[in-house]
């Protein structure tokens, strides 16, 4: 698809308006991230497991490399490798997100390099496009679960920047808001989890932005149990723009 110069100018203008209308800062580190390895299930809202995943995190020489991969029953793959630092605040270094297979109607292979400001998109036909963007320091691609562990439930709202992947990437902003608690159980024990909602901010420009980025994306939810440190309970939302709502939960290995 080709864009005329006027369309590109409008897109840039809207991006600048969105960036100017919202002020966001990198999230301070309250709980430093360590090395870990866990297992996850991706389910429909009806409880049907459609994919199993692994989450690994390795800390080395001041950098944290986080990898989350889901392998779907239909052969699809969703993999996100994120490298960041956590010296007083969280700062993204690189994020490489890949989605392909029947579960993803628009495959992506998208790399963000915060140091250079380069955004690289590999199309399904193998062609590669690259663009440069002046990226704000609070870009949060691949980081939301780690960031939320460091946001107090008493904080009314936290805003971060996010790069929407694509051949023509878009800078958007996400508002993170605690929306109350819900009860859950761990064995015989009753607990409560805070529902953090991640909402894409379109401000007063919804009517202008909609033709470019589509309809208002659905909210994403991450539930955490408060504590020292907080504990991940589950996630729920679309894994791609316009996609179905899926639920992500931790699972334990089974022995047969």
Automatic annotation (TrEMBL):
Protein name: Secreted protein
Lineage: superkingdom: Bacteria
Keywords tagged on the record: Signal
N-terminal signal peptide: 1-19
């Amino acid at each position: 698809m080709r864009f005329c110069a006027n369309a590109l100018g409008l897109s840039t203008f809207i991006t600048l308006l969105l960036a100017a209308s919202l002020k966001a800062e990198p999230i301070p580190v309250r709980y430093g991230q360590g090395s870990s390895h866990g297992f996850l299930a991706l389910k429909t809202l009806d409880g049907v497991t459609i994919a199993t995943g692994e989450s690994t995190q390795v800390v080395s020489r001041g950098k944290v490399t986080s990898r989350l991969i889901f392998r779907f029953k239909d052969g699809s793959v969703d993999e996100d490798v994120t490298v960041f630092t956590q010296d007083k605040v969280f700062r993204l270094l690189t994020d490489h997100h890949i989605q392909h297979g029947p579960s993803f109607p628009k495959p992506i292979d998208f790399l963000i390099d915060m140091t250079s400001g380069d955004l690289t998109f590999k199309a399904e036909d193998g062609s590669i496009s690259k663009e440069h963007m002046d990226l704000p320091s609070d870009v949060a691609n691949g980081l939301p679960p780690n960031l939320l562990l460091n946001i107090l439930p008493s904080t009314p709202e936290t805003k971060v920047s996010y790069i929407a992947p694509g051949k023509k990437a878009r800078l958007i902003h996400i508002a993170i808001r605690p929306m109350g608690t819900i009860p859950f159980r761990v064995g015989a024990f009753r607990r409560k989890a805070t529902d953090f909602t991640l909402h894409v901010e379109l401000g007063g420009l919804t009517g202008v932005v909609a033709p470019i980025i589509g309809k208002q994306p659905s909210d994403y939810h991450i539930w955490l149990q408060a504590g020292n440190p907080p504990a991940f309970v589950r996630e729920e939302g679309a894994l791609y723009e316009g996609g179905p709502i899926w639920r992500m939960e931790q699972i334990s290995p089974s022995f047969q």
